[in-house]
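Form 7-S
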Amino acid sequence: MKKEIIFLTPIAICIVVAVIIIALYNYRLKKRIIDSGPIDENSLKFLLSLSGIGSEILKWGLVLLFGGIGLILVEFLPYPADESTVPYGVVLVSVATGFLTYYLIMKKQEK
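Output:
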């Protein structure tokens, strides 16, 4: 378990830094568009697409929910994590199911 934490910690830190940088640049872009003057219909649509906070919350909520379900399912499997890769597969399939659920929900909302 210690080896996995040492491997995953830098990856998690890079992901957090990337998310923060993207949020800051989105903020700066929105601020520049608003400060540039009158906003037409195209600019307004673009600004609304940048601030899709509700869909981001839905996406990560579904991914974390399904990831948690996968971790719960792993507890009931007779395979230990250090001897078999089946528990990792169960968690990955659960997370993928969360992403697919999000995709289907967003596709249904576009119609």
